[in-house]
Design goal:
Structural class: alpha+beta
Oligomer: single chain
Radius of gyration: 58 Å
Largest sheet: 12 strands, mixed
Distance between the termini: 154 Å
Strand content: 25-35%
CATH superfamily of the largest domain: Glucose Permease (Domain IIA)
CATH architecture of the largest domain: Distorted Sandwich
CATH class of the largest domain: Mainly Beta
CATH topology of the largest domain: Glucose Permease (Domain IIA)
Length: about 400
């Protein structure tokens, strides 16, 4: 304390009283007192050393004030309500400021560490929740894949039952998109078996979802094709002339025959483009398939004629009717009565001349009626010697 007071006294003495050049005081030598351009004074001191120190007089004063302020002591007194002796603790202002700064820094640092720790646990909890959601989503995707596989198997079975091409895939044929490969299935297995959220890559999810979507579209298109095929087959079946046009007896088959109109003239024969079924006049004549009446009027040779268009290039012709019950443009159903049997036109007796045409060419109606030839049982109709025209 004495040394510090003595040094403070010497510095204060130098600042306040040394105004002459070359003044000597103890081991302190004032070499220069130089006026500054801003009216401040500098003192150059030497303490028996080749080093020189420059002190700015106002800075020295400020430094002294700061040191004095930090050196002041503070008394902390803790008084208990009981009879215990009060606790007293003296600290300097500088030490108190140091401890306050240290405590503030530790508080800020611990808050930062605690915040990062809380963020870590929150992130970890979020990752666990995300992993659970992704695992559940992967299981649902696997279930969807199983349903699609079952749909594919059902598709193949339906195509086999309907004699459709099994390798026909509308989506794959149009876009080149095929089914899943072994690598694709292993990719999904890896997703399910992974225990870490970071192992589930976003690209894998996008790829798997796109693949399931493409497969679902393919199966949908395939089932739509099957539905169209079934509906088309039903429509084709209804449009196939598989019923007998009338009850009676077959008097003439499809093919070449002797003309019943000119047998006495020695005519060799003619081509008969249909079958003749004879019965009593006004016997009911039925539409042999669904269709639209294309023609219903008089025609030379056929007499009163009804022509029905069944679609798919198939037409049926009903000739020699006594009266038609339908007109052109009417929609008729298989088994609907369309006319009465008669003997109009080129005919020798009451019968119906029945033709089946495909793409405008007459074909044998017997292939639709499943008849092999004269003498077979024909349902409503049966063969007998030719008498009709």
């Amino acid at each position: 304390m004495i040394t510090k007071a003595w040094n403070d006294f010497r510095i204060d003495f130098l600042i306040r009283y040394m105004t002459l050049r070359g003044a000597v005081f103890g081991d302190w030598t004032c070499f220069h007192i130089i006026p500054h351009r801003r009216r401040r004074k500098f003192v150059f001191l030497s303490v028996d050393s080749p080093f020189r120190v420059c002190y700015n007089i106002p800075d020295v004063k400020l430094h002294k004030k700061i040191v004095d302020a930090l050196s002041r002591r503070m008394t902390v007194l803790v008084i208990s309500q009981s009879r215990l002796k009060p606790w007293r603790w003296q600290v300097s202002t500088g030490f108190f400021l140091f401890m306050l700064t240290l405590w503030s820094g530790l508080t800020i640092w611990s808050g930062f560490i605690a915040g990062r720790h809380v963020d870590y646990w929150i992130t970890k909890a979020d990752n666990e929740v995300m992993l659970a959601k992704l695992t559940r989503l992967a299981q649902e995707m696997e279930g969807a894949r199983a349903v699609l596989d079952e749909a594919s198997a059902t598709d193949r079975q339906l195509r086999g039952l309907l004699t459709m091409a099994r390798d026909r895939d509308p989506i794959a044929a149009a876009t080149g998109v095929g089914g899943p490969t072994l690598a694709d299935r292993l990719s999904l297995d890896r997703l399910l078996s992974s225990g870490r959220a970071d192992a589930i890559r976003q690209a894998d999810w996008h790829h798997e979802i796109a693949r399931i979507r493409a497969d679902a579209q393919s199966r949908l298109a395939s089932f739509q094709e099957i539905a169209w095929y079934v509906g088309n087959q039903k429509s084709l079946r209804n449009a196939t002339p598989s019923l007998w046009p009338a009850a009676g007896t077959i008097t003439s088959l499809f093919g070449y025959r002797l003309s019943p109109m000119h047998r006495d003239d020695g005519e060799t024969g003619e081509f008969h483009p249909g079958v003749d079924i004879a019965n009593n006049p006004d016997t009911l004549i039925y539409a042999t398939a669904d269709g639209t009446v294309q023609f219903s009027a008089w025609s030379h040779g056929y007499g009163n004629l009804v022509v029905i268009d069944h679609g798919y290039g198939i037409q049926t012709v009903y000739g020699h009717t006594s009266k038609a019950l339908v007109k052109a443009g009417d929609r008729v159903l298989k088994g609907q009565v369309i006319a009465y049997m008669g003997t109009t036109g080129r005919s020798t007796g009451a019968h119906v001349h029945y033709e089946v045409r495909r793409q405008g060419r007459a074909i044998n109606p017997m292939q639709f009626l499943k008849v092999r030839g004269p003498g077979d049982e024909l349902g409503f109709a049966r063969t007998r010697p030719e008498t009709g025209g």
